[in-house]
Amino acid sequence: MAQQPHVTRTTPAPPRPGTAPAPEAAPGSTALPRLADFPALQEATAALQPPFAVVDLAALRANAAQMTRRAGGKPIRLASKSLRCRALIRDTLLLPGFTGILAFTLPEALWLAEEHDDVLVGYPSVDTDALGRLGADERLAARVTVMIDSVEHLDLLTAALGPAGPAVRVCLDLDASLRLAGGRLHLGMRRSPLHSPRQARDLALAVAARPRLRLVGVMSYEGQIAGIGDDQPGSRAGRAAVRLMQRLSTRELRERRAAAVRAVRSVAPLEFVNGGGTGSLENTSAEPAVTELGAGSGLYAPTLFDHYRGFRPHPAAHFVLPVVRRPGPRHVTVLGGGWIASGAPGPDRAPVPVHPAGLRLLPQEGAGEVQTPLTGEGAAGLRAGDRVWFRHAKAGELCERVNELHLVEGDRIVDTVPTYRGEGRAFL
After folding, report:
1. Could you tell me if 35 and 316 are in contact, meaning their C-beta atoms sit under 8 angstroms apart?
2. Is 5 buried (19+), middle (13-18) or exposed (0-12) by CB count in 10 A?
3. Which CATH fold would you assign to the domain 122-295?
4. Are 115 and 125 in contact (CB under 8 A)?
5. Quick one: average pLDDT of 238-248?
6. Domain limits, CATH 3.20.20.10, in the chain
7. pTM of the prediction?
8. Residue 145 forms beta bridges with which residues?
C-alpha cells in the first residue's frame, strides 16, 4: 500500500477577514452560484505545478452552514463518497449539524470505522471477506450498519457471518421512486425492490428471525427530487414537468415512508430513519418520520447543483490544468481534462472551464483523456503554461483523479491533505 501523506491540520481553520461568502439566494431565486475569488486562488496556488485540485475552505464552510439551515434542525449524516478525503470528513463532522457517516462500500466503512463510531453503508454489500471481518470484530460490529433490501441479502449475510459472533446492525433500504399507472411508469432510482409498507414489514420480520442480526434503521433516497435541479436550462415546459413530478413524488413519498416506518417499528425499535440528499434537504426534513438526512455533495458544490431554485451553492472544489498548445487564435489545448462524471452520458456530465471566463469545450471533442481543446473569447489571451480552472460535474469523483487536495484560505494554502487515492485506497 502507498505510504500515507502527512496531514498537518485536522480542524477547520477560522475564517479570514474579508473572505465571507456572498449572501445565499432567497428561496425561489434562479441565481447561479457566485464566482470564486480566482485572483486569490491563483495567488495561493502560484507555486504548484498543474494538474492539481483545490478546495476553498470559506466556500465549503458556507455550504455546510447553508445545508444545516436547510435541514431544519435535523442532523445530516455525511456522505463519504461526496468528499473521499478523510481529513475533510473529519473536519466536517466537527461542524454543527453533521453527525455520522454514510459510506458507499463496506471495505471503506470498515476503514473509516477505525476512527468513527457511526458508519452506515448506503448500499448492500456482497463482499464476503469484508462481511466476515465485520462479523468477527465486536468493535466494528458496534460501529458499522449494513444495508439490505431483500431476503437474498439476508441469506448472503447470514452465510458470510456464520453462526457465532457479535450482533450485526442492519438497515432496510426503502425504494423512494414514484410509481404511476399501476407501476408501469417508474420515476426515480432503480435501487431497492422494497417499495410498500407491507414489504418493509415482511423484511423486518425476516431480519428479526436471524439471531445474529439487529434491525436498527430505515433509509430511502429520493433521487428524482434530490438529484434533479428544478431550474435546469432548456424549455419552460421541461422545467414545469420536473417541478410537477417532484411535487407529486414529495407528497406520495411522505405518506408511504411514514407508513413504512410505522410498519417496521411494529417489529423492531429503530434508531434512525434516513432520507434525502443535498437537493431535497428542506422537503425531507419536513417529514416527521425522518430523523436524519443524508448529504455531502453540496459541500463541494459541483456543477450539477447549479440549477436549483431553493438554494445557491458556493463552488468550493476546483481542478486546474495547464495550457500546452495553441491550435489557432481562438483555440487552446489543456493537458488532460476527461474527468467525466458518472450517470447518463451528456453535456451536463462534462467538467466546465470557469476561469478565465469565456471558455467552452468543443462539442466534437469534449473533454479528452490526454488533452482537451477549448474555444471562446477567453482563449485569445492564453499562452502555453497558463492555467485554466475547472469545476467537476459531481463532487467526490474529482478525488479519484488526484492524490491530494490543496486547502485554501483567502490567498494562501493552509494545508495539503490526501484523498482516498492518495492514501492508496480505491474502493470503486
Report:
1. no
2. middle
3. TIM Barrel (3.20.20)
4. no
5. 86
6. 122-295
7. 0.89
8. 120, 169
